[in-house]
Amino acid sequence: MSTELRARLDAPALAPSAGVFDGYDPGPYFCELTTPRPGDGGALALIVRRLAALSLEDFRRRTAQAERDLFNLGITFTVYTEANAIDRILPFDPVPRVLTAAEWRRLEAGVVQRVRALNLFLHDVYHDQKILKDGVVPADLVLGNPNYRAEMREFPVPFGTYVHICGIDIVRDEGGTFRVLEDNARTPSGVSYVIENRHAMLRAFPDLMQGITLRPVDGYGVRLLEALCDIAPQGVDDPQVVLLSPGIYNSAYFEHVFLAREMGVPLVEGADLAVENDRVFMRTTRGLSPVHAIYRRIDDTFLDPTVFRPDSLLGVPGLIGAWRKGNVALANAVGTGVADDKAVYAYMPRIIRYYLAEEPILANVDTLICREPEGLAATLANLERLVIKPVGESGGYGITIGPRASKAELEAARAKLLADPANWIAQPMIGLSVAPTLTPDGLRPRHLDLRPYAITGRDTWVLPGGLSRVALKAGSLVVNSSQGGGSKDTWVLVDE
Amino acid sequence: MSALAAAPLLARYAESLFWMARYLERVENLARVIDVTQTFESPGRPAQAWESVVRINADEIPFRDRYGPPAPETVRRFYLLDADNPTSIPAAVSAARRNARTLRPLISTEMWRQINEFHGWVTALSEDDIAPDRLSALCTRIKEAVQLQTGITEGTFFRDQGWLFLELGRQIERADQTTRLLDIKYHLLLPSVADVGSALDLSQWHALLRAAAGYHAYRRVHPRGLTPASVADFLLLNDAFPRSTLLCLRRAEGMLDSLRQRYGLNVARPAERLEEVRAGLEERSIERIIAGGLHEFLDWVQRMLIAVSAEIGNAFFRDWRPDTPSL
Question: Which of A263, A433, B164, B323 has the fewest beta carbons closer than 10 A?
Answer without folding.
Answer: B323
